[in-house]
Design goal:
Elements: H1 2-44, H2 49-56, H3 64-71, H4 80-87, H5 90-102, H6 104-114, H7 118-129, E1 138-139, H8 140-150, H9 154-169, E2 179-180, H10 193-199, H11 215-228, E3 238-242, E4 258-259, H12 260-265, E5 269-270, E6 282-286, E7 295-298, H13 300-308, H14 312-326
Helix pairs in contact: 3-8, 4-14, 5-7, 5-14, 6-11, 7-14, 8-9, 9-10, 10-11, 13-14
Length: 329
């Protein structure tokens, strides 16, 4: 009986290995077929054969690490105060002030041309990649191909992949230097390829747009993005506030916009207890962590930051860092 059991185990193992091998082979064939279909679409879109051969030559299968990261994105349960404290720290504030001192000319040009105050450009830079230090090391084409094939938003990432191929075809960046996040966000401000197409600019005048290594291009591109998102250079982003007792929390939320004078009459005050600014600005009250959490009055520029990343916590972190970078030392 023992020998029979052993034989059955061996046969089962061989069958499992055979079936698995066939399945793996089939998956490779299906992916190869998908990739060939992509080539046809890309050629029809005007992308050169030379670019396609170089960019797709070594892509034989989806990247398991990218699939894993896409499927296991945790829901954020971090409180706003923790989120902001993690990102708006002493080191990032110090480095933000250093960047203001290192690039006054390029920040000034971006500020004047696109109407975005330099402290916000620097703060966005700091929150996104720690001023270019953490811009990602994943191969963008391979990551986007993986997500277009197996990701949760295949149609979206297929379009982004085609845009990334256009960037290569235009000669803005060599393939080996086209690195980014696992989801394909690129450069010092983490532009998706479609954002690159619409908003990236050649600020240093070398006929290439390099948001990876050219600080002038990166700064100007970020400012151009915010301008198109509706940025107003005569306003700030918002401010932390304190609320009176028995406040009507039904007024909270981005759907409600009231003039500052109205919020003042409702008992809302700056975080230090002083009166709100005497400006005819429309503002919304947000309380991301609920009635017991911090409250903020936010303006149009807050909405522009949310156009970049649809997260209240992200926009508050950028705004808070901009305030700290610009504050008297």
């Amino acid at each position: 009986m023992k020998s029979v059991s052993s034989l059955i185990l061996v046969i089962t193992s061989v069958c499992w290995f055979f079936v698995t091998s066939v399945q793996a082979e089939d998956r490779v064939k299906v992916f190869a077929s998908w990739l060939e279909n992509l080539r046809v679409e890309a050629r029809a879109a005007g992308i050169s054969q030379e670019t396609l051969d170089a960019a797709l030559a070594y892509i034989e299968a989806p990247l398991p690490r990218v699939i894993d990261l896409d499927q296991k994105q945790p829901e954020s349960t971090q409180l706003l105060v923790d989120y902001v404290a993690t990102r708006v720290n002493k080191k990032r504030i110090k480095n933000g002030r250093r960047m203001m001192g290192l690039y006054p000319t390029w920040l000034g040009r971006a500020e004047r041309k696109y109407g975005v105050q330099r402290r916000f450009i620097v703060a966005l830079w700091g929150i996104e990649t720690s001023y270019g230090k953490n811009s990602g090391s994943h191969p963008v084409i391979q990551s986007l191909a993986t997500l277009a094939y197996e990701g949760r938003r295949g149609v979206y990432f297929r379009k982004e992949l085609l845009e990334a191929l256009r960037i290569l075809d235009a000669g803005h960046i060599p393939l080996q230097r086209m690195k980014g996040s696992w989801a394909g966000a690129m450069g010092q401000f983490q532009f998706m390829p479609s954002s690159f197409r619409h908003y990236a600019v050649d600020a240093d005048g070398n006929d290439r747009i390099d948001i990876w290594h050219s600080v002038p291009d990166a700064l100007a591109s970020a400012a151009n993005y915010l301008r198109h998102a509706g940025w107003k250079d005569d306003q700030t982003w918002g401010r932390p506030v304190i609320l009176p007792e028995k406040f009507d929390f039904s007024l909270a939320g981005l759907n409600t916009r009231l003039p500052l004078s109205r919020w003042q009459s409702l008992g809302v005050r700056r975080s230090n207890g002083s009166a709100l600014p005497r400006r005819d600005l429309a503002a919304s009250l947000i309380i991301p962590d609920g009635p017991d959490g911090p409250a903020y009055l936010v303006y149009d520029n807050f909405r522009a930051l949310r156009a970049w990343n649809r997260s209240n916590a992200f926009a508050i972190a950028v705004g808070t860092l901009s305030d700290r970078v610009a504050a008297q030392r």
